[in-house]
Design a protein that fits this description.
Oligomer: heterotrimer
Radius of gyration of chain C: 16 Å
Shape of chain A: elongated
Largest sheet of chain A: 4 strands, parallel
Order of helices and strands of chain C: HHHHHH
Chains: A mainly alpha (612), B alpha/beta (346), C mainly alpha (107)
C-alpha cells in the first residue's frame, strides 16, 4: 500500500469519516425500523437478480437520471453531468491509483488528491488515457455546475417556471458543493503549472495562470481549499437535502428487495425514512402542481417532504394539498408523496372517531337479474343531468338497470380514506357491499370516479365495476349506441381520481372522438390539472380553490372548445360554476348528440318514469 | 351655441329615467339599447312590489316621456362595445366603427339574471316543474301555461330564495336585495291566482328593508297564509306525474323536511352584465359570461361623483343589485352630477 | 360577592352563558379552520347531508354549539359524518366543513 500524506488532506478525511459515521448511525436506526417481514424479504432477496436489477436502476436513475431527462432534458442533463461526472471522477481516481501503484487498496485521500502527489505520470495508459478521462469527467461536472448556476439565476433557461426555495442550511451545503469542483480544477492546474503534467484543461490553465515562480505559493492553498470544501460538504451532507445522494441508492435496493411500507406516519423509521430522505428537492413537482403560487401555504411535495424531514409546519402542508396526485406521478425518485401525506393526515386525525352503526342492515330481497347496477354517489345528487342522461342512454341501449342509491345513498368511503381515516370507512363499505351484491346484477356502473376508484381497489364485490365512461365506450363499440360525428369541438378534463387515480384516460376520449373533434389540451392525461375541489384537500381556503379552478379552466378553454367535458360530478360542478364555456358530463354530451331518428325521450322522460 | 349632448347606454329603467331627467335639464340625449325593444327587465315584469302596481304602467309612463321629448333620440338594436375619449368628448364605438359622439356618457347597462341551471341540483332545465322567478313573471304577464295540469286548482308551490346570491360557490357573495320581496310578492300573486294553493318560501334570512316590504311580508303571512320555512333546499328530484320532491333542512325545527310540489320557483339573483375595462383613453365594455364584476365607483358611499372617469357616468343596477326605486333615484342623482360636470361645477 | 339578578330568572342549566370562559380547544378549532366563522347556519349542509338520510347529523348546529362554548353538547355528535364532502361542495359561505368535522370529531 502506497502511503503518501500531506496535512491538507485532513479536512477531507475528517469530513468524510464524519459523514460515514453519521450515515451509518442514521441508516442503522432507519433499517432497525423495518418490520420483521421486511427484514425477511431482504434476506431472501439479497442474493437474487433483484439486487442486480437494483444496481442497474441505481445507474440509470441515481447517476444518469433518465426519468428527469424524460420530463425535462436540460434538467436531466444537468443532474446527469453532476452525478455521473462525479461518479466517473471517483471511479477514475480509483482506477488511476490502482493502475499507477499496482495496488488496489490505496488510501482514499491518495486517489482524491492524486495529482498533488503524482503531478507527472508517463506511459500511454497513464499519461494519455487516464489523464484525458479524468479531465473529461471534471469538465462534465463543471458543465453541470454552470447549468445549476444558470438555473439559480434564471430558472426559465432550464425550462422551469418554479424551483424549490431552499432553506438556509441547504443553501450553505449548496455553496460548499459549488466550490468543490472549480477548486479542484484550479488546484490541479496550479500543480500542473508548477510541476508539469496535467490534461487538456489543467495543463493549459496551469501554463496560463500558474506558470510563474510567484504562483508557486498558490498551489498548496488551493489544495487546502479544495480539501476543506470537500470536508465541509461531507459534514453538511447527512443534515441537508444532499442526503438524497446515498439514500436514493439504498431506497432503490430496498424497493427491489420488495420492502413494503410500514403502516402509519413515521419518517424516521423503515422505508418511509429512506423515501423522505431520497427527495432531492429537485422541484419538478412544483411546475406540475395545480396549486403552485396560490395561497399562503407552500405545500407542494418538495416543501411537504422537507417539512417532514425538518418536522416543521407539516400539519398545514398535509391538509391543504388537493391530493390530485400530479407530484407523485411525475416524481423522478418515485417518492410516494400521496401515501406519505395520507399517513400524516392519519397521524393528525388519529383521535377522530366516526361511527356509522346507525346504518340499517340491508335486506337482500330476491330480484330478477338486472344488467346494470347504477351507483351515482353522493356528488351525483348535485348533478341530476348526468344521472338522467346516463339512464336515458341505458334505455337507448335497451339495458335493464337498477339505481341503487336513488333515494338515499351511503358514501363509498373514499373521502374518509383521503382524510387519512381509512379504517373508519368499514361500516359504509359493508353497507354498500351488501346493497350492491344483493342486486343480482351483471355489472356495477358508477358515474363517480371517486366511488369507482374505491369500489375497484377496496371493495370485494361479486360483479365487475366500471366507470360510466368505460361503459359508454363499450356500448358504442358494441354498436348499442350509435352516433355520427358532428361539427363540435370538445376539451376533455381528466378527473384526478379517474386519470392518475385509476389510469383511465382513453375511454372518454374515444367516445368524444366519435362525436366531434377532440381538442388537445396543454396539460392532459397524467399531467392534467385538478379542478380545485379534490376531496383530498381539507383546509385549502375557498378563495384558493377558486383560483385553481380558474387556472384549470384557462388551460381547458385555450383552444376555444364548444364544450368542456368531464366525467366526474365533482369536477363538473366545480368547473361549471366558473366557466364561460359550457361544461358537461360525457353522458350528457352523448345523449344530446343523439340523432333525431333515434326515438329516445331526453331529459323529460324521467317524469313519466318516476311515476310508475 | 349648440346644445351639449349626452349618450346613454342601455334603455332599461335607469337609462330611460336618466334620459328623461337629462332632457329636462336641457341636454340632447342619444339613448342606445342593445335589444330590439327598450325597458330592460322591467318589460318582463308583471306587477311591482310592494304596491302591486302593474310594471307596464311605469314603463309606459317612462316611455311616453322619452318618446314625447324632442331632445331624446332612442335607437334600439345598437350594441355599444366601447368608448373612446377624443379631447373632452366621447366617441361611442359599435363593432370598430364610430356610432356617435357625446360630451358625456351614462352607462346604464343594468344587470343580468343568474342562470338558474347553474344550480343543477335544483333541476332547472331538467324538470319542467322547476322555473325561475323571471319565468314566473312571464307566465303572469302572458298568461302562459302553468307547468302543472290545468285542472289542478290547488297546486303546491315552493319558492327558493337566494339562488345564485349570497353563495360563495357561485362566486356571488352579495345579496341581490330584490329577491326576498319578489318572493313575497310572487307568493301573494300565486295565492291570488290559486286561492286553494299551498305556497312555501324557503329562505336563509328575510331581508325586508325597503319601504312597505315588511308590511307586505306580514300580509303574506296573515292574509295569504304563505308559509315561510327557514332552510335551504338540498335538491329537487322527480316524484312522478311531473311533480317534484324537494328535500330541505328546516333549521328552526332542526330537522330534515320533505315536500312534494307541483311547481318550484327559483328566485334568481342579479349578476353583472357589462364590465368596463378602463384604459387611458378608451373604455372597453366587455360582456363576460360567468365572471363579470359589477362596476365599482370608488368613494360612492361618501357621495363621490358617480363616474368612472370624468365624463363617464354610471347609473342603476350595473353598479350592483338595486330595487326599482333605488335605480330611478340613482338615475336622477346621476343626471345632476352630470349637469354639474358639463357646466364646470364638478 | 353580590349575586346579579335580572328581572326574570332562567334555570342555570338552560341558559347559554357567554360570560363564562370559552374552552381553549375552540380557539384552536377556529384558528385551524378560520372559515368556520363564516357560517350563517343556513342549514344547507344538513339538507344535502348523506349521513342525514339515516342519522342526526347537522353540521350547522355543531358549529352553533361551538360558538356558544357548549363543547360538551357538541362532543360525539360529529361521529355520524361520512366525510363525503357534499356539504362542502354546496356551502354558500365556503366553509371547509370536512376539515372542521375532522377536528370536531377529535374533541
Amino acid at each position: 500500500m502506497v502511503s503518501k500524506f500531506h496535512p491538507f488532506v485532513l479536512p477531507f478525511s475528517i469530513g468524510f469519516a464524519l459523514m460515514l459515521a453519521v450515515l451509518t448511525v442514521r441508516y442503522v436506526i432507519w433499517l432497525r425500523g423495518l418490520s420483521s417481514d421486511n427484514r425477511k424479504r431482504i434476506r431472501s432477496k439479497f442474493f437474487t437478480v433483484n439486487t442486480w436489477k437494483a444496481l442497474v436502476e441505481i445507474f440509470r436513475e441515481s447517476l444518469v437520471h433518465l426519468k428527469i431527462y424524460k420530463v425535462n432534458p436540460m434538467l436531466g442533463f444537468m443532474h446527469m453531468s453532476l452525478a455521473f461526472g462525479w461518479f466517473l471522477l471517483i471511479v477514475g481516481g480509483k482506477l488511476e491509483t490502482w493502475y499507477y501503484t499496482g495496488d488496489f487498496a490505496n488510501e482514499m485521500h491518495y486517489a482524491i488528491f492524486f495529482r498533488y502527489f503524482e503531478p507527472v505520470t508517463s506511459g500511454f495508459w497513464m499519461n494519455g488515457v487516464m489523464v484525458f478521462f479524468m479531465e473529461f469527467a471534471l469538465l462534465m461536472v463543471l458543465t453541470g455546475l454552470i447549468l445549476a448556476f444558470a438555473k439559480r439565476i434564471r430558472k426559465k433557461l432550464m425550462g422551469m417556471q418554479n424551483t424549490t426555495r431552499h432553506s438556509p442550511g441547504n443553501r450553505i451545503a449548496l455553496t460548499f458543493l459549488w466550490f468543490i469542483f472549480p477548486l479542484r480544477l484550479f488546484a490541479e492546474s496550479a500543480t500542473a503549472g508548477q510541476h508539469g503534467g496535467g490534461g487538456f484543461m489543467t495543463a493549459r490553465i496551469g501554463s496560463w495562470l500558474f506558470n510563474s515562480a510567484g504562483a508557486a505559493s498558490w498551489e498548496l492553498p488551493l489544495w487546502w481549499a479544495y480539501s476543506i470544501s470537500l470536508g465541509l460538504f461531507f459534514i453538511a451532507l447527512p443534515f441537508s437535502r444532499y442526503l438524497h445522494i446515498p439514500t436514493e441508492m439504498v431506497l432503490i435496493l430496498l424497493r427491489r428487495w420488495g420492502i413494503e411500507p410500514e403502516k402509519g406516519f413515521n419518517p424516521n423509521k423503515g422505508l418511509q425514512a429512506f423515501e423522505v430522505h431520497s427527495c432531492s428537492s429537485c422541484g419538478i413537482c412544483l411546475d406540475a402542481c395545480p396549486a403552485i403560487n396560490i395561497g399562503q401555504e407552500a405545500f407542494q411535495a418538495s416543501y411537504f417532504v422537507r417539512g417532514v424531514r425538518e418536522n416543521s409546519e407539516v400539519e398545514a402542508k398535509a391538509t391543504s394539498c388537493l391530493s390530485c396526485g400530479s407530484c407523485t406521478s411525475i416524481c423522478p425518485v418515485g417518492v410516494d408523496v400521496e401515501q406519505l401525506r395520507l399517513d400524516k393526515r392519519s397521524d393528525i386525525f388519529s383521535k377522530a372517531r366516526f361511527s356509522h352503526s346507525y346504518l340499517p342492515g340491508s335486506m337482500t330481497l330476491w330480484r330478477d337479474t338486472t344488467e346494470v347496477v347504477l351507483f351515482t354517489g353522493c356528488m351525483g345528487r348535485s348533478n341530476p343531468k348526468t344521472t338522467v342522461a346516463f339512464k336515458a342512454l341505458l334505455k337507448e341501449a335497451r339495458l335493464s338497470f337498477v339505481h341503487v342509491d336513488e333515494k338515499d345513498g351511503v358514501c363509498c368511503g373514499r373521502p374518509m380514506a383521503l382524510a387519512g381515516a381509512l379504517d373508519q370507512s368499514l361500516m359504509m363499505k359493508e353497507y354498500n357491499s351488501n346493497l350492491i351484491n344483493g342486486q343480482n346484477g351483471q355489472v356495477l356502473v358508477t358515474t363517480c370516479p371517486i366511488c369507482f376508484k374505491y369500489f375497484t381497489e377496496e371493495y370485494n364485490l361479486n360483479i365487475p365495476v366500471m366507470h360510466h365512461s368505460q361503459f359508454l365506450w363499450e356500448l358504442m363499440k358494441k354498436g348499442k349506441i350509435k352516433r355520427d360525428s358532428r361539427d363540435l369541438k370538445f376539451a376533455y378534463h381528466d378527473p384526478c381520481e379517474l386519470g392518475r387515480g385509476s389510469g383511465c384516460y382513453e375511454p372518454p376520449r374515444s367516445v368524444l372522438a366519435q362525436l366531434g373533434e377532440l381538442l388537445s389540451v396543454d396539460k392532459e392525461r397524467d399531467k392534467a390539472l385538478c379542478c380545485g375541489n379534490n376531496l383530498g384537500s381539507l383546509s385549502l381556503p375557498e378563495s384558493d380553490r377558486r383560483q385553481i379552478t380558474a387556472r384549470t379552466l384557462a388551460v381547458l378553454s385555450a383552444n376555444e372548445p364548444d364544450y368542456i367535458v368531464s366525467s366526474c360530478p365533482l369536477c363538473k360542478q366545480t368547473l361549471a360554476r366558473q366557466s364561460s364555456v359550457e361544461v358537461k358530463d360525457l353522458a350528457e354530451i352523448l345523449l344530446e348528440t343523439k340523432p333525431l331518428r333515434v326515438k329516445v325521450p331526453s331529459y323529460s322522460y324521467v317524469h313519466q318514469e318516476a311515476g310508475r | 351655441m349648440t346644445k351639449q349632448k349626452v349618450a346613454i347606454i342601455g334603455a332599461g329603467p335607469a337609462g330611460l329615467q336618466s334620459a328623461v331627467s337629462l332632457a329636462e335639464l336641457g341636454y340632447e340625449v342619444d339613448l342606445y339599447e342593445k335589444k330590439s325593444r327598450p325597458g330592460g327587465h322591467l318589460a318582463e315584469w308583471h306587477v311591482l312590489f310592494p304596491d302591486m302596481q302593474p310594471a307596464g304602467e311605469l314603463l309606459d309612463s317612462l316611455m311616453q316621456k322619452v318618446l314625447a321629448h324632442p331632445q331624446i333620440r332612442l335607437e334600439t338594436g345598437v350594441n355599444i362595445s366601447g368608448l373612446e375619449q377624443a379631447g373632452k368628448s366621447w366617441q361611442l364605438i359599435q363593432s370598430d366603427s364610430v356610432r356617435g359622439e357625446a360630451d358625456a356618457v351614462v352607462l346604464a347597462s343594468g344587470f343580468k339574471l343568474f342562470e338558474a341551471s347553474k344550480k343543477e341540483e335544483y333541476g332547472h332545465g331538467i324538470y319542467p316543474a322547476v322555473i325561475s322567478s323571471a319565468e314566473l313573471e312571464t307566465i303572469f304577464i302572458r298568461e302562459k301555461e302553468w307547468p302543472f295540469e290545468k285542472t289542478n286548482k290547488s297546486p303546491k308551490i315552493g319558492l327558493v330564495h337566494c339562488v345564485g346570491s349570497r353563495d360563495a360557490k357561485c362566486g356571488n357573495l352579495y345579496c341581490s336585495k330584490a329577491c326576498c320581496i319578489t318572493a313575497v310578492k310572487q307568493a301573494i300573486e300565486l295565492k291570488k291566482t290559486f286561492p286553494a294553493s299551498e305556497v312555501y318560501c324557503f329562505y336563509m334570512d328575510m331581508r325586508m328593508f325597503g319601504l312597505g316590504y315588511e308590511e307586505l311580508y306580514h300580509k303574506a303571512q296573515l292574509d295569504y297564509k304563505v308559509q315561510f320555512i327557514r332552510g335551504r333546499l338540498s335538491e329537487a328530484s322527480p316524484s312522478g306525474a311531473g311533480r317534484i320532491q324537494v328535500k330541505a333542512e328546516d333549521t328552526l325545527m332542526g330537522r330534515p323536511l320533505k315536500l312534494t310540489l307541483d311547481m318550484l320557483v327559483l328566485m334568481v339573483g342579479m349578476t353583472a352584465s357589462v364590465s368596463p375595462e378602463v384604459k387611458e383613453n378608451t373604455v372597453e365594455l366587455k360582456e363576460y359570461a360567468n365572471k363579470g364584476e359589477f362596476v365599482k365607483i370608488p368613494g360612492a358611499v361618501i357621495g363621490a361623483a358617480q363616474w368612472l372617469k370624468p365624463g363617464l357616468f354610471v347609473a342603476g343596477a350595473c353598479k350592483g343589485p338595486a330595487t326599482l326605486p333605488e335605480v330611478l333615484n340613482d338615475a336622477r342623482a346621476t343626471a345632476l352630477d352630470l349637469r354639474n360636470y358639463l357646466s364646470g361645477v364638478l | 360577592m353580590t349575586k346579579q339578578y335580572f328581572g326574570f330568572s332562567v334555570l342555570e342549566q338552560r341558559s347559554v352563558n357567554l360570560d363564562s370562559e370559552m374552552p381553549a380547544e375552540l380557539e384552536s378549532l377556529y384558528q385551524k379552520e378560520p372559515s368556520l366563522r363564516a357560517c350563517i347556519a343556513c342549514g344547507n349542509c344538513a339538507a344535502v347531508c348523506s349521513a342525514g338520510h339515516f342519522a342526526e347529523m347537522q353540521f350547522y348546529r355543531l358549529n352553533v354549539m361551538a360558538r356558544r362554548g357548549l363543547l360538551h353538547e357538541m362532543v360525539g355528535k360529529a361521529a355520524a359524518c361520512m366525510l363525503c364532502g357534499r356539504c362542502q361542495m354546496s356551502c354558500p359561505r365556503g366553509v371547509n366543513i370536512r376539515h372542521a368535522v375532522l377536528m370536531m370529531s377529535q374533541l
